[in-house]
Give the backbone structure.
Amino acid sequence: MNNPSASSSRHHVQTAVCIVGDGAIAKTTALAFAQAGQSVTMLAPPAPPQQPSDDASWDVRVFALNHTANRLLSSLKVWGAMDQARIAPVDAMLVEGDGKSPGGLHFDAYGAHANTLAWIVEDRNLNQALDAALRFAQNVHIVHGRAVALSAGEDVAAVKLDDGSEIKSSLIVGADGAQSWVRGQCDIGLDYRSYGQKGVVSNFECEKPHHGAAHQWFTCDQGIVALLPLPGNRVSLVWSAPDMLADTLCSEGAAALAARLSAFAAEKLGTLTPVQPELVRAFPLRMLRPHSLVAPRVALVGDAAHVVHPLAGHGMNLGFSDVQDLVKAVVEREEHRSIGDERVLARYDRSRKEEVLLMQATTDGLERLFGTDFEPLRVVRNFGLNLLDKLPVVKRRLIAHALGKR
């Protein structure tokens, strides 16, 4: 039986899979491998002191999860364990240009022949369900500690901890975020680009019903504003704002932020009122592209494997697809190959390249395109939005990709 409160006393563990990290993608990876019959050890950071949480409040960190994420989490009995009353389906997506000339794009679930385009899920809701599933996982062991060294031999890999403990496994999965320690130990090259922006997040009550629609405004000097539906008459803000503006938005507070948003949202959503007046958060935006997702007996997933601009809302979905493809490569390997075999990991690496590169190229290209106020380019891009909105075949392909259909 899994022991989520395992201490940091000395361990010498032999396991099939060692997962480094304790976020939603790391937990999902552990459950998926356990379901596939593999013994799993999760290496999580030393447990911080328990902080009291207000479960009635609305988490400012939310994810727009697509159908791939839904299917994976459902297969792991996680989706149904979430508080369904706190999940909002996205039935339509309305994208507008800079407002200086007409330009817009509209997606909806009906046109996609789907019950919904995506689901907005709070980080806390997702992680609570994952933690509950891990407590009942029969072959998942959690170790809290700090890794200091990683080595990979022909038959086994090992992670050493600062207390002298060691975890030996056939495969190490780096699910430890954008600043991945595992990736750094493997000396994997990295392409990096800072967008000079921060993602400003907060939640608001809206005067008018949102009808399950997500709204996004591409501006030039103010960045990209997105309002995502939450249950009831609530919306979640993700404003990809230039650094100086983002700092101003955070220092002014949620009430002033609501007033600024009225320039975009007043017509569609009416007056916005902060759900938690003191709660405005920001995080830096950048693109990370490792030169490989694998190394000897090591695979990267989630933000350790790629970081994209949040304008498409697919960073977390890419991580769930990583988990799905990595477990698939292991399950479908030849009998004589171990789960950390070079050929098995190479198949995983190849399976992820197209989707990840396409998403990074798309989000990076859109950010560059809408980040300039050059007049001829502004006219062309708004014309392009209108043209795309009138091309149903192209729109259907874009929607299919957003839904997670390959």
